[in-house]
Specification:
homotetramer; DNA-binding; 78% helix; Tetracycline Repressor, domain 2; Arc Repressor Mutant, subunit A; elongated; 2 domains
DNA sequence: CATGAATGAGCGTTCATTCAT
DNA sequence: GATGAATGAACGCTCATTCAT
């Protein structure tokens, strides 16, 4: 039965891949199950054999995308030492991946509002990411790197900021992420009192931060 | 014809009021034009007399809500003197109003993702708010209150942060806005290097910010 | 609003007429709502505007047909004097009308088994007819024309007998109703001890009954 | 190959058993081939290996059930001596078995109307039973026990009466068969001029028949 | 022989939109 | 201007049947 199972799994993946493509492109409501079937080169029956409904298919897709993104971010965090570095790494990992995978971003950040059921699921998904961020923040607070803050509020505020900038970039191309991400990273770090000193990508802009210190 | 025009306007308002209620409650796609007609105590024909389509009705509703919110925020800003105070006032005005008018928040922050057309409109609407914020930030930079930053990025990041926290609060009740708003305000001010000094509600946390400075 | 209502009613009737034709011809499950719409020269939307579902439409049709048949039978009964004559009149009215209106018969006697929900409705409909029959039988018993019997059992047994012979005739043409109905009427009357003497239509067959008397 | 054949036969029986259960419970159209496969603890493939289609499976089931019922009735008839006794025995055997096996009754009496194809098959099946009854009636007429009647009409009328009462009892529980069957038997016997003499349960009513004769 | 994943034609129902009154 | 009956294109979902393993 193992080869059978493998084939089954493969079909399911094909359907999810197709769903990702079509949902991202057309949006949840404009997407026809027929088109997912066609795109997946399977059949409508196969879609409904593997997923009980269009809604459930979308939810499964959200799960898959969130899990992948989460794994990526966890990897990025694990690769760094030190609270601040981890925070920065997480932020950069998320934005980088969302920027590279527009479909991921569209599904997770935009289509996830398509229906009340998804809004709640989106909150759950974001909660997982917020958990990661909070853990780093709590560590940083514990080690004295940053002053105590309500890390729940901070985490969600950060995610919202990322969300908004990515969505805007997705639809308007502005501001370009290469420019926005370092600025955003600096902004978020500053928001918890961290000096966004050694930015690898835009050392020039770092200077201006130092001036700002003298002002306050 | 003036009295007739007045009646016309009134019907239109009734429809918009009904649309606001129903769209906020059920979401764009779950809302039937029939239900808007019923709720507005007019008729389906009336709806289509005043608005060319369901989509246009929703767009008009977004405009009306955005205009009201914008007016509120402009008022709050105008009432203050000094860049920092204006920034703070704007933030508080937005969150306060969204919190008081859940329907406003649901339509503008959540339902506005319901269709690709609305996503773009939402970006335009947010752009207007971002414009307000940017203007204050630019003033603050000009007057030397804060260090130069990419105010476009900052403004959108801020709006995203507000968006996320309000949406989360709408659906889960957590974190309570009374707690989240001051924290968020402080966070955002800090993100541009401002000391969120005189917070009325959480003066204790202010102290810790000063310690943080010494760490970097 | 009266003309509007009249038009509405007319459309509803058109749909019921079409439904009667198509359901009788194709059976409930083979009938497409599309075809009812087409046959009624209205539209699928009209069908669903007037009836909440295909099932409800069928039920409404059963009601209409049953009401008509019932009215006919009540008329036939009212036209006669004397328990026995009324019983005979009722039997003949039912069979005559079912024979003349094959669609009525198909829908009420055959299609009414198409779905569990209809089976129950059919029982209710038959119950109404049984009620009529019982009333006559009870009268006949009261006036001493026939001996006491369980009129509920008798009524349903009679209806079953009629049902079976009409259905068989509908599908096979055998036995021809002109022959079967008098025989059946005699049979049923005899079953409650009545002498089916003066049959207007087949006086010849009456003779054989009289021979039978000598045997018992 | 004989043992293999035996296994094959056993699987077929399992499927028929399952089909009987499910068809009786849910009705033909509500029954999924999947569910028959599951209930039979075989597989969908097995069902289609043994029966060419769902429709054929149902037809085969009708055949099996009819054959069993027919055998029972034939046995009951054979066990009796004398036309009248045989007639009575047949009636009682049919009703008794239908009452004891509700699934048999539901499939044969109700589901058999589910589709035009089945209606015809049902007519054939009933024809076989009618043949049995007719044979007894013809014998009774030949031996002079009853007066000559159109035995085809009588047989089908009787079956219809039984059908209706059993179906009603199946769905409503009323009238209870213990009460209805003797009454029905007496009724049917009377319908051909037989005195339903030795009824165990309602001996009183027998007398009244004789009075009735004098009325006509 | 058995299995169950895959197929796809088919259908009931929805609902934004129109227009005669 | 207002009404609501009528329209019909659109779509999610079902399920009998097939066939590769």
């Amino acid at each position: 039965m193992c080869p059978r199972d493998r084939a089954k799994r493969r079909t399911q993946e094909r359907i999810l891949d197709a769903a990702e493509r079509v949902f991202a492109e057309k949006g949840y409501h404009q997407t026809l199950v027929d088109e997912i079937a066609r795109t997946s080169r399977t059949s409508k029956g196969a879609v409904y054999f593997h997923f009980p409904s269009k809604e459930a298919l979308f939810a499964a897709l959200m799960d898959r995308l969130a899990a992948r993104l989460l794994r990526e971010v966890e990897g990025a965090i694990a690769a760094e030492r030190g609270g601040v570095a981890k925070v920065r790494a997480a932020l950069e990992a998320v934005t980088r991946r969302l920027a590279r995978h527009r479909r991921l971003a569209k599904v997770l950040l935009v289509q996830s509002f398509s229906s009340p059921a998804f809004v709640r699921k989106r909150l759950e998904v974001l909660e997982r990411f917020a958990g990661l961020v909070r853990a780093q923040l709590d560590d940083a607070i514990a080690e004295g790197s940053i002053a105590p803050v309500d890390t729940a509020v901070v985490a969600h505020a950060w995610l919202g900021a990322v969300h908004e900038l990515v969505v805007r970039w997705l639809y308007t191309g502005e501001p370009p992420l290469e420019r926005a991400v370092p600025e955003l990273t600096a902004l978020l770090l500053r928001s918890v009192g961290l000096e966004p000193a050694s930015e690898p990508e835009r050392p020039s802009s770092t200077k201006t931060r130092e001036q700002k210190q003298g002002q306050s």
